[in-house]
Amino acid sequence: xxxxxxxxxxxxxxxxxxxxxxxxxxxxxxxLLWNTEGEITYFGDVPPLxxxxxxxxxxRENFIVLPGxxxxxxxxxxxxxxxxxxxxxxxxxxxxxYPQEARFRESRVAEEQSRNFFESCLxxxxxxxxxxxxxxFEAAAIAFxxxxxxxxxxxxxxxxxxxxxxxxxQTTVNQTEKDSLFLLExxxxxxxxxxxxxxxxxxxxxxxxxxxxxxxxxxxxxxxxTHISENVDEVHETLRLFPTAxxxxxxxxxxxxxxxxxxxxxxxxxxxxxxxxxxxxxxxLVHCPTSNSFLGSGIMPYRLFKEQGLSMGLxxxxxxxxxxxxFDEMRTMVEVSKLRSSLLKEESTVSVENALCQATLLxxxxxxxxxxxxxxxxxxxDFIVVxxxxxxxxxxxxxxxYDALSEKLQRIVYRSHPQMVNESFIAGxxxxxx
Length: 434
Ligand SMILES: [Zn+2]
Hints:
Strand content: 15-25%
CATH class of the largest domain: Alpha Beta
Helix content: 25-40%
Distance between the termini: 23 Å
Bound molecules: zinc ion
Structural class: alpha/beta
């Protein structure tokens, strides 16, 4: 067996494999093989070594392999100002977000920040990202080029706004249609990139712009991403701007923005009628717990929504969220669920295993990617190699007694460290190495 061949076709390591039940399977030592298309051809016990003769197989015996993580909601242009601000959503957008996004008019800024963002994602184990971009078409094209170079799976679109933001961030309905058709033609389903129709949220979009967003996303079968009911003031302002709408969700519904490829960020303060519409349209509610804590927005009842049968997602929502790491997001998801349960006497909480299943397999399903998110023959070999001893090591740490794989998983989620992801692979190709 060769162990240092760049064109590896297999890996032997410990594995954690998510399942749709919300539990994971642990393999202390297993083998994953894939073909030249990057599709998994084998996952299971390590076969007799002679059967692997001639194949390049990496040995990573002290490492844990997880499926590549999938971030369903984040903002590329906001990464530079993570952890800034002590405001609620609306004033925070005015003070930090809009001025920062305006800087992306300069192509040098767009290029540097896009490159840094994608490299950061891969270094943190995120192999698929769904992101809002700045409002500028040129900066969006640059982001697509940089994502293609980084080889990350990227679903993105410029944040569409035609009112209630500074004039230089506003677009028009006609311009949006023209720009979207160009981006669709050039980047949609090309290599690893897809175009996403991205009306920022109802406050910054006219009825016409929302209607165009709904139409484009349905006609071209793209994802549509927007925000909903993150903050109580935002809900009131939306209802003031759309006085004839039945509800916040009603605004999106009557403009064709709610369908099975719609990702709705947050959804904390929804009425039961709104939840019914969202469920009927098969749209996805994307939980962003770090951001919700940081901006004091509230705690989404993730577990209750899931039990009601709503389709759920998980995202970092940088820079409302102060970390681009989905390991950090999983930890917050578990912690706020326990907090909510103890405060409101709810019975069920989210476990570390549930959180990992959401950040991988269930997030993949939410964007129609049944070929991602776990290890099975025929799926894509997207995976990350994690060094659990790097999970915020204890001082003078030697081998400790808590080294079962389930204990290591607890540790990498609760004590995640930016350097613990050693390598990231997409379709069997190494796209990041420390
Ligand atoms: Zn957001």
